[in-house]
Each structure stands twice: as C-alpha cells, then as structure tokens.
C-alpha cells in the first residue's frame, strides 16, 4: 500500500477537475483566434475566468491567468513593486521570513520581516519597517506551506492601509481549504495543482481592475498583462478544483490531522505551531528532535508513506527549514517532516501512517530538546 501525504506539494487530482480538463481538451482552436474553433476555445476560457472571478467576488478583468503560483507571485512583485511614478521609483519590498521561495527569490533587495515563535508575522516589525522604508509592497503568505500556520492577514491589511502600502498575499495553500477574502488586498496568488487541478495553471487575482505591466510580453493575451497562449485544460481543471474544494467539509480532514498530532506527541515529537497558532486543516510539521529529516523521510517512504521535508518544491535539497529556523526552532529545523493530507485521505490511511510513525520514532528515538 502506498499512501500519499504530500498534498501541499501537489494535491490529488479531483474528479471534477479531471472531467473539466477532458472537456477542455477538445476545442482545436487557440482562444486568441477569431475563427469558430478559436471562439469555442475562447468561450471555455472566459467561462473559467467568470467562475474564478465569482469565487473571489471579483470581476473577470481582475483575473490574470498564469502558469502557476510561482509565476503569479513573481508577477505581483514585478507589477506592484514598481512605484507609482514608474519602474525607476521601485517600492521597497517587505516579505515575511517564512515565505515560499517563490517570493523569497523575487528580489534580492527585499527586507525580511521576522515572525514570532508561533510562526505568525510580527506586526510591530511590519509597522516599523513601513515607517522606515517609505512606499512599500508587502508580500505575506496566508498559510505557510510547511507548517500550515495562518498569518493574521486582517491585521496586516489594517497596518498596510495605515501606511498606504500595497499588500500581495500568497494564497496558494489557503485557497479552497479555508474561507479567504480578496478584500483589502492589492492582489493574491493561487495555483491550480494545489487545489486538485492539473499542473500548469495559476492566477494572479487583482484587488481592483486595472492594467499591470506584464512580466512576460508577447501576443497581448490576458489584456496585455501576461503574454502566452492560455493552457485551457489546466485552467478549466483549476476552476473546477477550487469550486469542489470549497464544497468540502475540511473538519473531517482536520480530525485526521489531529489524530496524527496526538500520536506524534505521544511518540516524543514536537509540532510546529501546535496550540499556539491557527493552522490549515490538513497540515502538520512533526519534529523528531535530533533525527535528520531525510532519514525520517526515507524510512517512511520505505514503509509506503509519501511525506516531505520542508518545502517539497525544493525536496531535492537537504537543508534545514528556513521556516522553522525563523520560528526559533534551531536544530529542530533539520528534524522536521511535513505531513499534508490530501482531500480524500481516509481514516485507515492515517491509522496506518500513525503505526509507521510510532515504530520509526521508537527505533530512531527523539533526542528531545
Ligand atoms: N506559494 C506557496 C505557499 C507554495 O506552497 C508553492 C508551492 O509549493 C508556491 C507558491 C509555488 O506554486 P507553483 O508550484 O504553482 O509554482
């Protein structure tokens, strides 16, 4: 039996998303072509745009389709990092210490804002940085991909508003899993494969209609805001995935996650953010102090369980988690595995995982801190 517990790397494809993808494979046309097949493709594209806009209580012109979450984040930094007076007067980029590399790598000049021990952004540091740095673009994720910890976005919106700062939110992990609103944001980024769609589509959702300078120039697609032919099947499956994800009762998944937490604590593990910060329903970061994360990952893999160390987008690299380091977890940052439950996880799978985890912990032991 192989059990996949790495949904934050990529969600399991949802049936609704598979069907939508198949339906969108047939039109032969390019959505930018004016002939009949092109118009048919265009209809699918615009219907997907309308539905995604409806999901965010936005207008269709506020949706810019991209290739995924990384591109949507990069586009936000590119577009909103520019000053009102043009690219020469760049805004200062302020980013949370626990951001995904999709934001961390966007600009070497970014100011990094600390998080508290609970993993949540330090609002006092944000306020001070806004006072010191003048016009700014703040980039914060709504939910952390490694720990599931939720940042206080409502409070961050209020602080940014007081300093007239722009605020871009990486909503890649929260979207579909918890209610989340576009209100007060300059933009937010989403990614279809994190919600149960196929890979290859994401979107930058703009807080207000308007032109943004493209990062990818080309044929003027997406109202001149992102060049390149839109991947219809991926876009259609992304929209269907978000709609299905929103219908799901995530408390069922949260209960399974809580079962893992209980068992892990009983085995001597620590859990990042446990009981001190709100978290996504499907995510937990288990720290078995002193036991290299890679060793845990390999043992669990041999036992038939797919989990990850830190951010799975970088799971080729074996380095301590910058997220846990920022939370002051020191050595623990090299001993954490992320378990992220897909939408269709079953109780039997979790009971089997718990047995494997407990037997691993008993063998490797926790050199508890
Ligand atoms: N932002 C967060 C929080 C993520 O977890 C990820 C992927 O893990 C991304 C952005 C990048 O998304 P994509 O894989 O669609 O480029």
TrEMBL record:
Keywords: Iron, Iron-sulfur, Metal-binding, Pyridoxal phosphate, Transferase. It comes from the Bacteria. Residues 3-353 form the Aminotransferase class V domain. The keyword Manganese does not apply. Its cofactor is pyridoxal 5'-phosphate. The keyword Transmembrane does not apply. InterPro entries: Aminotrans_V_dom (IPR000192), Cysteine_dSase (IPR016454), PyrdxlP-dep_Trfase (IPR015424), PyrdxlP-dep_Trfase_major (IPR015421), PyrdxlP-dep_Trfase_small (IPR015422). It catalyses: (sulfur carrier)-H + L-cysteine = (sulfur carrier)-SH + L-alanine. Belongs to the class-V pyridoxal-phosphate-dependent aminotransferase family. NifS/IscS subfamily. Catalyzes the removal of elemental sulfur atoms from cysteine to produce alanine. Seems to participate in the biosynthesis of the nitrogenase metalloclusters by providing the inorganic sulfur required for the Fe-S core formation. This is Cysteine desulfurase. It comes from Asaia lannensis NBRC 102526.
């Amino acid at each position: 039996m192989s059990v996949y517990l790495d949904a934050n790397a990529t969600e399991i494809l949802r049936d609704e998303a598979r069907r939508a993808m198949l339906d969108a494979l047939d039109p032969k046309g390019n959505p930018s072509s004016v002939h009949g097949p092109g118009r048919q493709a265009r209809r699918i594209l615009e219907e997907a745009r309308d539905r995604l806009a409806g999901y965010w209580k936005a207008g269709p012109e506020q949706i810019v389709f991209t290739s995924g979450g990384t591109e949507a984040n990069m586009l936000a930094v590119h577009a909103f990092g520019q000053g009102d007076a043009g690219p020469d007067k760049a805004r200062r980029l302020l980013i949370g210490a626990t951001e995904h590399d999709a934001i961390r790598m966007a600009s070497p000049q970014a100011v990094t804002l600390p998080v508290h021990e609970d993993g949540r952004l330090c609002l006092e540091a944000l306020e001070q940085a806004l006072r010191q740095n003048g016009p700014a673009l703040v980039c914060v994720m709504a939910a952390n991909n490694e720990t599931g910890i939720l940042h206080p976005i409502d409070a961050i919106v209020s602080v940014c508003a007081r300093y007239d700062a722009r605020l871009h939110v990486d909503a890649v992990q929260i979207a579909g899993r918890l209610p989340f609103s576009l209100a007060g944001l300059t933009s937010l980024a989403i990614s279809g494969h994190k919600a149960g769609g196929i890979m290859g589509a994401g979107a930058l959702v703009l807080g207000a209609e308007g032109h943004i300078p493209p990062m990818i120039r080309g044929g003027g697609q997406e109202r001149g805001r992102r060049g390149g032919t839109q991947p219809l099947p991926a876009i259609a499956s992304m929209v269907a995935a978000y709609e299905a994800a929103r219908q799901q009762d995530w408390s069922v998944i949260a209960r399974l996650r809580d079962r893992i937490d209980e068992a892990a604590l009983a085995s001597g593990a620590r859990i990042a953010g446990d009981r001190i910060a709100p978290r996504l329903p499907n995510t937990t970061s288990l720290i078995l102090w002193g036991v290299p994360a890679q060793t845990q990952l390999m043992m669990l893999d041999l036992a038939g369980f797919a989990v990850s160390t830190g951010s799975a987008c970088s799971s080729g690299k074996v380095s301590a988690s910058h997220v846990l380091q920022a939370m002051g977890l020191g050595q623990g940052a090299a001993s954490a595995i992320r378990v992220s439950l897909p939408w269709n996880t079953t109780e039997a799978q979790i009971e089997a995982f718990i047995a494997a985890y407990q037997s691993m912990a008993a063998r490797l032991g926790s050199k508890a801190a």
